[in-house]
Amino acid sequence: MATMVPPVKLKWLEHLNSSWITEDSESIATREGVAVLYSKLVSNKEVVPLPQQVLCLKGPQLPDFERESLSSDEQDHYLDALLSSQLALAKMVCSDSPFAGALRKRLLVLQRVFYALSNKYHDKGKVKQQQHSPESSSGSADVHSVSERPRSSTDALIEMGVRTGLSLLFALLRQSWMMPVSGPGLSLCNDVIHTAIEVVSSLPPLSLANESKIPPMGLDCLSQVTTFLKGVTIPNSGADTLGRRLASELLLGLAAQRGSLRYLLEWIEMALGASAVVNSMEKSKLLSSQEGMISFDCFMTILMQMRRSLGSSADRSQWREPTRTSDGLCSLYEAALCLFEE
């Protein structure tokens, strides 16, 4: 007989919603497939088993043997108590059966998949928090998006400071790139972008995927940074070769963290556009051989992270990879095609 599924505490992780949406629905129909998906829930700590409750097998309190006959009301009371005790025992036995255990696992897996679908496609303005109680889906609270909260004067001052700070940073970077090559400004700009790449790489996968939990000011900052970096990647932007390459890598990292097809397609559009400019300028031999390139290791790290997040089980020999140069680089054009195929 299968082990009884203990009471569990549900704690859905937002960054795994995309992974659950892509799960094969046909596998839920088989007991083996349900067992694999349930073990995934447990390993990701989205389902936390709780301690098994002590079984109460004590029956109803019946009167001792007495010579006096019981009244009809008392007899009905004791009969109801006996039947209720037998019904509780029957429920306990049935819940310990293999069928009941597999059914409860299947329901939890379906609940997780439906939550991911609802959160990604039908719940943009609010986030439904799962009730952290054993086997209880009631009591789900709707938390309004932070964008619906009234803005205070403090929020306005913070937003003004962030906006002006970003504008100042972008202006300083552009001015430093326009300095002569012998100046120290170039390395300073590239160090800033390289530090940003390290910060984005250190984040857990899909940390920026749930935009309903990001304040409007954060989304606006991401939009400004993305627009600035797109302008930097163009060969005639004024930045040096390394700066353009680092900007492409940072853009790709942000697109992967945001976990949406829209941002990945925007990166592909940027890469193809930059490659087209590079090809037109190479004909006049105005560019070096490292133009229109990106770090091979950086690109493959992000690509492998995407495949792990989606639970890809394909053979690695079937995966398309860009050509790696002797400098450890690959062309933006090949990287865009590889990402588009993915």
Automatic annotation (TrEMBL):
<dbReference type="GO" id="GO:0005085">
    <property type="term" value="F:guanyl-nucleotide exchange factor activity"/>
</dbReference>
<dbReference type="GO" id="GO:0005737">
    <property type="term" value="C:cytoplasm"/>
</dbReference>
<feature type="region of interest" description="Disordered">
    <location>
        <begin position="125"/>
        <end position="154"/>
    </location>
</feature>
<dbReference type="InterPro" id="IPR051553">
    <property type="entry name" value="Ran_GTPase-activating"/>
</dbReference>
<protein>
    <submittedName>
        <fullName>Probable E3 ubiquitin-protein ligase HERC1</fullName>
    </submittedName>
</protein>
